[in-house]
Specification:
10 helices; 62% helix
Length: 182
């Protein structure tokens, strides 16, 4: 289901989703990258180019570049954020909160929280949450600075395994990730 389908869906009619999507998709992503670039003292143009390359590779590893899809672990979307809240806050909620710190509240964030879903969000919103989440993880600055400034593939692999994936030692994940980051 695309965003326009979601906004015209039965859930929208019941008031679960907002009727008006934000129109600042690219602006939100640029604003987020600029804020983190300023915080880290790096060039935002170079940072955006390298972070987008990194995000593209991770999207391929996680869900073959598809924005929709769910696996048995409750992970969904391009970057496979977990949406299950049975054990506390989901990784989707955490990503939204970390991103909100820099962008303020957005209707698309509220919709994702209300529905515990990310599949209906367009690629740029999902990427905004992915970058917002990684850039705010404890201890991520040094590694993400290397990703953002140098486009360092070793740093990208390490950032993926340490900051995003839940089980870096899973043989299949490690093998697949190494294929993409060579």
């Amino acid at each position: 289901m695309g965003i326009w389908d979601a906004y015209n869906s039965e859930e929208t009619q019941r008031g679960v989703l907002s009727k008006e999507p934000d129109i600042e998709i690219e602006g939100d992503l640029d604003k987020l990258i600029k804020a983190h670039s300023d915080r880290l003292g790096i060039d935002p143009t170079v940072a955006k180019e390298n972070l987008m390359k990194f995000a593209e590779i991770v999207g391929q590893i996680e869900n073959s570049g598809k924005t929709q899809g769910k696996n048995p672990s409750s992970a969904e979307g391009l970057y496979q954020f977990k949406t299950d809240t049975s054990e506390g806050q989901s990784s989707l909620e955490t990503a939204i909160n970390r991103t909100r710190k820099y962008l303020g509240d957005r209707s698309w964030m509220q919709d994702a929280e209300r529905t515990d879903a990310i599949n209906f969000l367009p690629r740029d919103y999902q990427t905004t949450l992915f970058i917002g989440d990684l850039m705010e993880k404890e201890g991520s600055d040094k590694l993400m600075r290397r990703v953002a400034t140098l486009g360092d593939k070793d740093a990208m692999l390490e950032a993926y395994l340490e900051l995003h994936h839940t089980n870096r030692d899973e043989p299949g994940t490690l093998k697949r990730a190494k294929q993409f980051f060579k």
